[in-house]
Amino acid sequence: MIYLIGAGPGDAGLLTLKAREILKVAEVVIFDRLADEKILNYVPATAEKIYVGKSAGRHTLRQEEINRLLVEKAASKNIVVRLKGGDPFVFGRGGEEALTLRENQIDFEIISGVTSAVAVPAYAGIPVTHRGVATSFAVVTGHEAPAKVESSINWEKISTAVDTLIFLMGIANLPQITAKLIEHGRAKNTPAAVIRNGTKNSQQVLISTLEKISAEVAEKNIQPPAIFIVGEVVNLRENLKWFDTKILFGKKIVVTRTRQQASKLSMQLENLGAEVLEFPTIKIAAPSDNFKSLDAAISDIKNFDWIIFTSANGVENFFARLKNFKLDARALSHSKIAVIGSATAEKLSNFGIIADIIPEKFCAESLLDALKNSVAGKNILIARAEVAREILPRELSNFGANVTIAAAYKTVPTDAVKINFAEVDLITFTSSSTVENFVAAVGIDTLKKIKSAAIGPITAQTLKNFGVEADIVAKEFTIAGLVDAIKNFYEGEKIVQ
Questions:
Q1: Residue 205, Cβ neighbours under 10 Å: how many?
Q2: What's this model's pTM, rounded to 2 decimal places?
Q3: How many helices (H) and strands (E) does the chain have?
Q4: Nearest to 159 by CA among 182, 189, 134, 139
Q5: What CA dihedral angle connects 304, 308, 313 and 318, to 10 degrees?
Q6: Bridge partners for 440 per DSSP
Q7: Continuous H helices in 84-212
Q8: Is 169 a catalytic residue?
Q9: Does the active-site annotation cover 326?
Q10: Of 13-27, 277-291, 318-332, where does mean pLDDT reach its minimum?
């Protein structure tokens, strides 16, 4: 089976649920230039990925070769995906590919995508129809040279018969397109817009008139990919623009969390308009003793008066090992539970346990303050990272507690992802290990050239140890707190400007 899938116009969030589910089981993915590469994260690591993108004057493969490639892969694989920008049947040549498959008796399915003809204007605050303004719209190819003798576009009729005209792939031919429209009756002062990189953080919108827009596009050197839209609906942008007014719009922000944990921070930053580049500097691995100390502690779990979790990773691995002993949360009924912060408490609640203590400030010092009067003579288990600050077990021992440390996991460096840091506005750090491993992977010079955001004072101090003063330090030591701090920082920058 071959699936012809529309990847949407650029924002990976516009991929359909059905498309995502097929991509998760794909064996081969043949993809275009305009498909957001984040979408490929849904594809299994074992799948074969083949790039066949096209740009003006540069084709990786000709269409005939792409057609042959589809037939070839269908002969050897069960699930082949042809991933196309926008929608396969809106100037995507999906019909040609489907006909080739039918001729070769290959089953196929079309999974429609969100077309740029509607989504890109929407992200610019321009509805293609609007009551009392536009009751019709047409989508036209701009790739055809309008000046050729036998144009397939009926300029005489389309120029004035439709309220809103949307031209895809038309930037190179914009002078001819505007001239043809004016020649066949469209008013010179009709509002017009060119939208480049629509639905992406780099979106650029130029508003003008039909008569002037071609010259202004040339003057500003606006390059493809872009769409051209003509009609009175363009005037609605002033009141309806929403995407490029977000506080982090135009900012490129690097997230250094593990791949498994990056999504929560990435999503919140993207919701504020940022383009997020994930650069995992660490990954979570089994501790060096292969859980020996943790398993020993679980074997003796009934003898602990307190169990302390210092991270969500510690909680997750603790309960995974607990399950190995055929135990669940009931095994902790004799113990009180303390956590270092709200994220850890939230993870703990997933296993049906409400923490007895969550400190006012999410750090070891605040947790110690909360525990100091209730741990003397008590047996305490700390399930934590293999390498961690020693202040918690040391001070608990000073308070008279009997402390057992069990390594629930360790953090190790991961392979560096290629990023052009010259284009980055901000790097986020959610732990000291992310700082240390970032410096090891990229170098201190890169870190010093870019603004940095730390999830709290401990992480900020690690940055300072490398000679870098954090530009942003969260007041609440959580992902939400970090996002709020970043938002407030850039809101302050806008006020200054």
A1: 22
A2: 0.80
A3: 18, 22
A4: 182
A5: 10
A6: none
A7: 94-103, 116-123, 155-161, 174-183
A8: yes
A9: no
A10: 277-291
